[in-house]
Amino acid sequence: MKLNQLSRFAVLASSLLLGTSIQAATVTISCGAVGTELDVCRDGVEAWSKKTGHEVKLVSTPNSSTERLSLYQQILSAQSTDIDVMQIDVVWPGMLEKHLLDLKSHTNGAEKDHFPSLVQNNTVNGRLVAMPWFTDAGVLYYRKDLLKKYGYEAPTTWEQLTDIANDVQAKERQAGNEQMWGYVWQGRAYEGLTCDALEWIYSYDGGTIIDPNGKVTINNPQAAKALDTAKGWIGTISPAGVLNYTEEEARGVFQSGNSVFMRNWPYAWALSQADDSPIKDKVGVVALPKGGEKGQHAGTLGGWQLAVSRYSKNPDIAADLVAYLTGYEEQKRRAIVGSYNPTIMALYKDQEVLEATPFFGSLYDTFANGVARPSTPTGDKYGRVSNAFFNSVHGVLSGNGNSQSALKSLEKQLKRLVR
Ligand code: GLC
Questions:
Q1: Disulfide: which of 144, 237, 259, 377 matches 284 by Cβ 3.0-4.6 Å?
Q2: Using 50, 70 and 90 to split pLDDT, how confident is the model at 23?
């Protein structure tokens, strides 16, 4: 008997002794696999399995949130019983709600400890369709050592970032690193570009694509200015290949020491500080820059929730797994080993968490006030809204037409969509 089987046997034996009749079940969870995500998920799941005697199967899903969504939509609309617990993006509750269980009667009130805005985000038509697991906000990673070497502070505006990136990139290339770039980020036509572009636009006071009342606001000069700024980076401080980068491609370049700056989510921190990382101890993290002196810092709100499929054959057991994984101890462990931002507020005061990831403290406001994508006002149409937005932004960045006319036709398209 393997250790795992042995412990399951022990749990079952003791439940028999106590006169209860727990049947060991098998539940399936789908976890993301960006960076070390799948391993960190597996460790948590195994701990629950040991504790309860139930078996868990792990399925990994595509890294791109856009691809993952279409996979889930297929599985759920077929009412498949294959997956019990699903890791869902913060922008999906409105789209998947009708396929998900109301978790309220399973949480024992635990949602009160989480950021209220996330609980509200996950509550659709009065039903708590997912529990917050980890939150995210876009942040700016920079090479402390290189900025110091050339006498710079971390930038606070995109204009400063552009200047510093140009200068340090040129000097490092001259010094022999021909692979050096100034700035890497997420430019592929997928959900990640929606996040990056929303940050640029919001930071220049260009709004949130669609406002909280459902009004399409994207066609404005500040948004055009933001897109023009980003377009200016392609081929100068950012490789042309950035137009096909997701989170992991950007991290690959930055972590191998070949970029001065990177836009990414907090998960990249733990990986950059691993013992085998070439940039260990050389990285700083600050809020993303403002759009000019009069602009504002903006990090898009991201993050993942755990939900139980309505078609699960073991809804109670699946909900218990969700309760365990989203609970205090497990969120604490994940924050320490993987720099996944807790959604339980008290963990931002936990010394061990703050030691492992110091910017959880210094950037608390960035995480607490992330800029939301317009998923609440657009509900089940959000997927199409985001697709239209990232395709149009990708077109501008790729040099197909100017930003003003792209935003004008995007506005038309979005108005038709949300009508
Ligand atoms: C991160 C965020 C998620 C977002 C995705 C885009 O995983 O947590 O909210 O949709 O990146 O690539």
A1: 144
A2: confident
State if pTM tops 0.90: yes
Domain boundary (361, 381, 399) is at 361
| 301 CA closest ligand 1 atom index | 9
Q: Which atom of ligand 1 is least distant from the CA of 190? A: 12
Q: What is the count of structural domains for the chain?
A: 2
What is the tens place of the pLDDT at every residue in 216-275?
999 999 999 999 999 999 999 999 999 999 999 999 999 999 999 999 999 999 999 999
CATH of the domain at 405: 3.40.190.10
For residues 32 and 117, membership in a common domain is answered with yes
Same-domain pairing of 118 and 251? no
Distance CA 86, CA 158 (A): 37
**Nearest ligand 1 atom, CA 64:** 12
Residues with CB under 6 A from ligand 1: 65, 89-90, 136, 191-192, 195, 247, 265, 302-304
Each residue's pLDDT tens digit, 153-202:
999 999 999 999 999 999 999 999 999 999 999 999 999 999 999 999 99
Q: Which of 65, 249, 393, 394 to mutate to test the pocket of ligand 1 (most atoms within 8 A of CB)?
A: 65
Whether 10 maps to a domain, the answer reads no
Give me the mean pLDDT over the 281-309 stretch.
98
Q: In this structure, are 294 and 306 located in the same domain?
A: no
pLDDT, residue 3, reads: 47
- Residue 5 has a pLDDT of 54
Say whether pLDDT at 22 is over 70: no
> In ligand 1, which atom is closest to the CA atom of 34?
7
Task: Look at residue 46 and tell me if it is in a domain.
Answer: yes
- Please report whether residue 55 resides in a domain: yes
Answer positive or negative: Cα dihedral of 197, 203, 204, 209. positive
CA of 91 to the centre of ligand 1 (A): 9
Q: How far is the CA of 36 from the centre of ligand 1 (A)?
A: 15
126 CA distance to ligand 1 middle (Å) = 25
Give nearest CA residue, ligand 1 atom 6: 192
The parent domain of residue 272 ranges over 139-300+372-418
* pLDDT of the residue at 73: 96
Same domain for 306 and 269? no
Q: Best of 89, 194, 305, 386 to mutate for ligand 1, by most ligand atoms within 8 A of CB? A: 89
Same domain for 97 and 25: yes
